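Preliminary data (for renewal application), heme C complex.
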Amino acid sequence: MEGDCYTLALLNLKHIYTKRYSRFKKVRDCSMKKIITGFILSITLFSLLSVAAGDAKRGQLASAACAACHGSDGNSPSPEWPNLAGQSEKYIARQLQEFRKGPDGNRFNPIMYGLVAELSDQQIADLAAYYATLTPKAGEADPDMVALGRAIYLGGNAANGVPACAACHGPAGMGNNQAAFPLLAGQHAQYTQKQLLAYRNGELTSEQAKIMQMIAQRMQEDEIKAVASFIQGLN
Ligand code: HEC
Ligand code: HEC
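Predicted structure:
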């Protein structure tokens, strides 16, 4: 009988969530204590299940606050604002968590801090899930820089210990969501260049950012420029 009381509480909670009050089951032979315990257990279970994954639909609603800068389709209209379309869900979620930490975190940006300071983990997961579903648009590479950019991207620069970007970001720049290696394909060259310089200068300090710091510190100015331009043309 005890188990039945808990099952009923769970079912009833589901009817409350889905607003199907007519399906509400009468609770007979259950003490008030068991009914209340059942509800509490059910609510805990529901909340555990609901923070597990992002919901792209909810993320789409929340993205209204982001569209002015990151574009209504996740492809931003200005080279200072990164494209988010198709970006690794894990990578986005992690960056938003870093922004949320503010000046003491590993990635401080006053604009993004103001926008995400009040977001919950669930809202962050929803936004990340939504942007990951969108389609990235490619830009164009500067023809004068393509040869050097491609050489660095696909082969690195062995003389200075620069590894091939393709090894982690993929030959077509699609990234790797499981590993949270970001998608780079089509990203604005101006933003990519700024990021590489920020890694090099130690402005980004997470464990993952330190991988990029080691790489960017071995790169020459013209290599950074050329690879950023090549990445903008990748699709
Ligand atoms: C006023 C413009 C603006 C708005 C609005 C805005 N962002 Fe940003 N966003 C930026 C800028 C600028 C950066 C680059 C920050 C940096 O250089 O570190 C950025 C960076 C990001 C990044 C990191 C991307 C990457 O490739 O590393 C993510 C993720 C992001 N924004 C998500 C959002 C979300 C989600 C919202 C809405 C809640 C939002 N942004 C609203 C300007 C904006
Ligand atoms: C060993 C794996 C690895 C290699 C090789 C690598 N990267 Fe990365 N890269 C990462 C990781 C991990 C991150 C995420 C760092 C973070 O969270 O800040 C990243 C982030 C980036 C970003 C920031 C993206 C954004 O949206 O802000 C750029 C740009 C980038 N890498 C460019 C390059 C280039 C150019 C090369 C080649 C010269 C390269 N990477 C080689 C692992 C790698």
